[in-house]
Design brief:
Two copies of one chain form a homodimer. Chain A is an alpha/beta fold. Chain A has one domain: Ribokinase (UDP-N-acetylmuramoyl-L-alanine:D-glutamate ligase). Helices cover about 35% and strands about 25% of the residues of chain A. A nine-stranded mixed β-sheet of chain A has the order 6-5-1-9-10-11-12-13-14, sandwiched between helices. In chain A, strands 2, 3, 4, 7 and 8 form a five-stranded mixed β-sheet that branches. The N and C termini of chain A lie far apart (about 45 Å).
Chain lengths: ~300, ~300
């Protein structure tokens, strides 16, 4: 049994108030896979890169228990490239360059050896590609988590609604939840989105934490107040990776265990933003992760007896 | 021993996407007093109104255990009046009218019978008036909580820093914490503000909850996701009132008890925003308050064992 991660593997060039990078490793599936690797050791990747993608990056993913046999390498093409610049508040950003390259013709292929997939994480990608992946799976996974963004709501809403109707958990940010539902109140937005099919909705609020909804319950996890947020790129993906990695490890998809998974996801994301790109997600120790989770516990713990 | 509340008692005219009011009862001290009344029964008010202030409002405050002997009534003047309009996101607003009226010449007088004050809540007012109140107290209260806003940072920063240096707890919103400290990171902002004198800082983040800092610890309390936020006016004041009301009731000013006080403050504020003005803060039952607090507990409770 394994975790299948589908999403982009990319180059990013990032500018924040704290500095600027050349092309560095990025992509939703990269962040998801690295984050999940701290919780589960059986991760399969479906993605695509070009001939310009360094083999060291692939070795690094493999060292993090990520099987790259499903990573297509298009020798004569170039890897997907995104460049962006964050504003001073780090909550908003401008896209400077988007070169789709290999993504333009990406035809995902799920290798036979991945068919035992019990947990499926569909990282942010065209809903069309996400649907193609799902169609190739002979058995429905125990849990399907979908991440998406406003871009697909703008240009591919019908396909997006199709894939949303087929998954168990949808993760979007607060602005996207509002856009998708047409409701400003997140409680009402959640009701409308859950009516589209998913049993669970996670609304990511960045520095303000994350909300988990099902039809009857709601859970609010804070975000750790950090001294420096160096680079928010990949925070949402790291969150999703930690979330599904923890679920895949524990094999328990109850609401109570999802609450725990959100804390582990938040802890993983908090590492991500402390350095540029994936730098801080490579080679963490179990001890570091546990200490960070303990900080979350301490941050929100209070003791009230009403009786 | 008692709780002394100093602040405005006012008329507000409020416009939100959900409707519009004529002149209704408002003012920081009104919200603070009403909120605190659900936790402590010995509340003394220092404020000022004009001859146009209805005696029914005063009776209503008295029914909520608020002693109004320190409420000056200037027969030939008018009560402070504020009119504002909230934007669609309910997080920002425009001030349409500010008529200072009685506030223009407000000379606060602390009656002798208020001198046993153990807990002092300085609601949002001119720092000059806040300093005058403090100077009249023969004994320093056990705990002084100060609420203020960006307006005073703009026009009276020196006096504001003077009063900040004399209090135990400062409450501001996130934008104000950033303005006062010159730091974007709330962790760094908290360090700088605590260096100005207060032992505790509460950063109010509206729908995103509230943070409590002292020099070593931090606590993050969520806000209840609400189906409707009808009118945010007075939310911060209700929060502060519930906070200090709970502390005055329990007489325990440890960090752990302040965490509880923040949950009770948040619960009280969540009632406030569900209707216009003070409407929903009048005549709540203990049961309603307890149920709301239980919702907060359920909202954030999770159970992780790292051992």
């Amino acid at each position: 049994m394994s975790l299948l991660v589908v999403g982009t593997v990319a180059f990013d060039a990032i500018e924040t108030p704290f500095g600027k990078t050349d092309k560095i490793l990025g992509g939703a599936a990269t962040y998801i896979g690295l984050a999940a690797s701290y919780f589960t050791k059986n991760i399969n990747l479906v993605s695509v890169v070009g001939g310009d993608f360094p083999s060291e990056n692939i070795s690094m993913l493999n060292r993090h228990h990520i099987n790259t046999n499903g990573l297509q390498i298009k020798k004569d093409q170039k890897t997907f490239f995104w460049a962006g610049k964050y504003h001073n508040d780090m909550n908003s950003r401008d896209t400077l360059i988007t070169e789709l390259n290999v993504l333009e013709t990406f035809d995902p292929i799920v290798p036979d050896e991945y068919q035992d997939c019990e947990f499926l994480m569909l990282g942010n990608l065209s809903p069309q590609v996400q649907l193609q992946v799902l169609a190739q799976l002979k058995n429905r996974p125990k849990l399907i988590v979908l991440d998406t963004m406003n871009f697909w709501m703008d240009i591919a809403l019908d396909d997006l609604k199709k894939i949303i109707s087929k998954v168990d958990v949808l993760t979007v940010n607060d602005g996207e939840a509002r856009q998708l539902s047409g409701e400003y109140s997140l409680v009402k937005a959640a009701q409308k989105i859950l009516a589209m099919g998913p049993k669970y909705l996670i609304i990511k609020k960045g520095e303000h934490g994350a909300l988990l909804f099902n039809e009857e319950q709601v859970f609010y996890a804070p975000a750790l107040p950090l001294e420096e947020v160096f680079d928010p790129t990949g925070a949402g993906d790291s969150f999703a990776g930690g979330f599904i990695g923890y679920l895949a490890h524990t094999k328990d998809i109850s609401f109570d265990n999802m609450k725990r998974a959100i804390i582990f996801g938040s802890a993983t994301a908090s590492f991500c933003v402390e350095k540029f790109g994936t730098e801080n997600l490579v080679g963490l120790t179990q001890n570091q992760v546990d200490e960070r989770v303990q900080e979350f516990i301490d941050l929100v713990q209070f003791d009230i007896s009403l009786v």
